[in-house]
Every structure is written in structure tokens, then in C-alpha cells.
Amino acid sequence: MVQLSRICFRKYGNFVDNLRLYVRGGGGGMGLPRLGGIGGKGGDVWVVATKNMALKRIKDKYPHKRFVGGAGANSSVRALKGERGTDKEVLAPVGITVTTDDGKIVGDLNTEGDRLMVAKGGPGGSFRSAFEPSKGQIKHIRLDLKLIADLGLVGFPNAGKSSLLTAMSNATPQIADYAFTTLKPEIGKLMYEDYKQISVADLPGLIEGAHINKGMGHKFLKHVERTKQLLFVVDVCGFQLASKTEFRTPFEAVQLLTKELELYKEELVLKPALLVVNKMDLPDAEDNLAELKEQLQNPDEFSHLLPENMIPKSCITFRHIVPVSASTGFGVDRLKWCIRESLDEDAAMATKDIHQDRLQALRGH
Asked: Which of 44, 192, 198, 220 lies 20 to 30 Å from 6 when distance is taken between CA atoms?
């Protein structure tokens, strides 16, 4: 069995995951009519995926959020072809989707060094334009960050996600006996003795109706899209958000979480998933766990417990169901091992697929 060491978490204060920028390509340089000289082209504006960069840093460093390409040089007797204006680079975090103001996707920057032109510089003056230069493109764009992590924690508020992180780590997330203790995403690394690292994203608790933007809504769900696997966390004794809302059993909580993901984007429920049943130190926990396992084995028999519009189209088959108690530490080591096993299994499958594709390609030649 792989040895486990501690896991450390990094809290994002004042986390920024969406930024609107004004971008303008540089204007072209003037042409020189009497000698047929061509003005220099204006510089372009690029967004470049950069390691260890945060949107908050862009916001702090450029409070006006304006990025303009350099102007092209005018044509002159000394240099008939004017010099090109300098390009302007916006250094952005990896995992960015660039969109227009109305939500149209311009492109994704998923790996370090990926580049995307967002505003083109204007051409210099030439014979075609009566030697008059053109202005650069002017746009408003949005940088939308989706966290990239191996594992995303999914649960209703108060399921004990923050406490679970503390149990697996030396982290001190904001924990209290009220819902919504995690209002900002938190990303951490699970460190193993063989130097393997697994990143875990703890994200704000979902509430029923999140897909239509209640509570954290889409702000939470968009981050789930880029995690490789999901870690559902439910309270073994059930969940009630407030005295006016309905009490949900652990089975109902799993089904409702599945439905929320499905309503936001159906592909999300196809991701490999593990289920953590937390608070096993509470009375009746063992009986509740046995009941939950039985219900998950035959979900159709128990779907009548839910309102019809909240029954998911497809039920998730969990790779592991792990009972834990974040407060006593029970089951936490087994959970870490299950996480590692599940991710390693997927990585091995992916490598096998790549090898098979290469063999097919070789045979095709």
C-alpha cells in the first residue's frame, strides 16, 4: 500500500474567477505617399497562459484593466517600411476560458504557454488605403477561470467538507455550525511518500436549485467541469439547510447532488466518483449507513422518496463508498488510499489508450 503523508491546503483570499478587460490593438503607422512608403502595423494583444498567475494579481496590478498594443511607426525617408508596433501580453492563469461580453467563447488556455490573440493591431497606411493607417480592434473580453484539480468535492453545506480537509491535512479552513462556511474555493495538494501529488478542490456547498443560480450556483458548478473525478460528501444523519427547508436523508442528498450536476451539464455525472459518508461518530450512524448502501444498490426502488422533478436520469455508481468521521479521524487514511487508487486506475487506462492509438497509427502507415 502507498504510504501517505500530510496534505496541505492553500486558501484563496478574495478569490477572483472572472475578470472583464478592455483590449485594443495598436493603431497602424502613417504611409508616405510621395515615396510609396508603408506604415508599420499596430501591435496585437495576446492572452498567454502563465504558471503561478492569478486573476487577482492582474486586477491588482492593472486596476484600469486596459491593455493596448503599441502603435506602428510612420513611414519615413529613412525607413520606408515603418516598424511594427510592440505586442501587448496579458499573463493569465492556466485554465482560462476567454469569452466575449455576451458569453461567446473565443478560446481556452489549458496548458502553460498557450496563447490567444484577442485584439488585432491596425494595418499601416499603404497605397491601398491612400496611405492612411487603420485603428486596431477594440474589444471587451472576459477571462473566466475554471480550477483544474484531480478531485472536486461535491456536497451540500454542512456535509463536513471543510472538516474533512482539516482531518486530512494541517489546514484550518473556516469551520462553524452554520451552512455556507466555504464561500471561496480552496485548492490543496495531497502529498504521498513516493512524491505523487493529488490536487483537491474544495468548493462552496451546493444547494438545491444551484443549476439555476441559487446560492453559489454556476460559480461553483463551472469549477467541477475541469476536475478529473468527483468526491461526494454527505452527512450520514441527513441534511437540512434551514428550519423552513425540507430534511433530506443521505440517499436523497446523493440523488439531489446528482440531479444538480446533471441539470447544469449532463456529462458531469459521467465522471468517476467516490462517496464519503461523513460524521460516522454520531448515534445511529451504522444503521443509517447500511440503509444508504442498500438504497444506492437499488436506487429505482427508492426513487419515489423524491419529488419527480428531482429524480436524476441516471444514477452514479460510486467506485468506493467510504465511511469516515472527520472529527475523530476514523476512515480518513482509507479514504486517502481510495482516492489514490481511483486516480491511478484512470491514469493507467489513459496511458493504455494512448499506446493503443499509437499502435493503430503505426499499423495504418
From this structure: 220
Q: How far is residue 148 from each of residues 99, 188, 227, measured CA to CA in Å?
A: 18, 11, 6
Q: 3-state SS string over the chain? A: CCCEEEEEEEECCCCCCEEEEEEECCCCCCCEHHHCEECCCCCCEEEEEECCCCHHHHHHHCCCCEEECCCCCCCCCCCCECCCCCCEEEEEECCEEEEECCCCEEEEECCCCCEEEEECCCCCCCHHHCCCCCCCCEEEEEEEECCCCCEEEECCCCCCHHHHHHHHECCCCCCCCCCCCCCCCEEEEEEECCCCEEEEEECCCCCCCHHHCCCCHHHHHHHHCCCCEEEEEEECCCECCCCCCCCECHHHHHHHHHHHHHHHCHHHHHCCEEEEEECCCCCCHHHHHHHHHHHHHCHHHHHHHCCHHHCCCCCCCCCCEEECCCCCCCCHHHHHHHHHHHHHHHHHHHHHHHHHHHHHHHHHC
The dihedral built from the CA positions of residue 323, 245, 264 and 177, taken in this order, carries a sign that is negative
Residue 134 to residues 26, 29, 37, 139: CA-CA distances in angstroms?
Answer: 9, 8, 15, 16
Which three cell numbers, joined as nine digits, stand for 83? 516598424
The predicted-structure confidence for 126-182, as pLDDT tens digits, reads as follows 999 999 999 999 999 999 887 667 888 888 777 777 777 767 764 444 433 333 334
List Cβ neighbours of 78 (8 Å cut-off, separation of 6 or more).
none
Handedness of CA 257, 161, 231, 316 (dihedral sign): negative
Q: What count of other Cβ atoms lies within 10 Å of the Cβ of residue 6?
A: 11
Write the pLDDT tens digit of every residue in 240-293: 776 777 888 999 999 988 988 888 888 888 999 999 999 999 999 999 999 999
And the C-alpha cell for 273?
A: 466518483
Query: How many Cβ atoms from other residues are within 10 Å of residue 357's Cβ?
Result: 10
CA gap 263, 313 in Å, rounded = 10
CA 112 from centre of chain: 15
* pTM of the full structure: 0.65
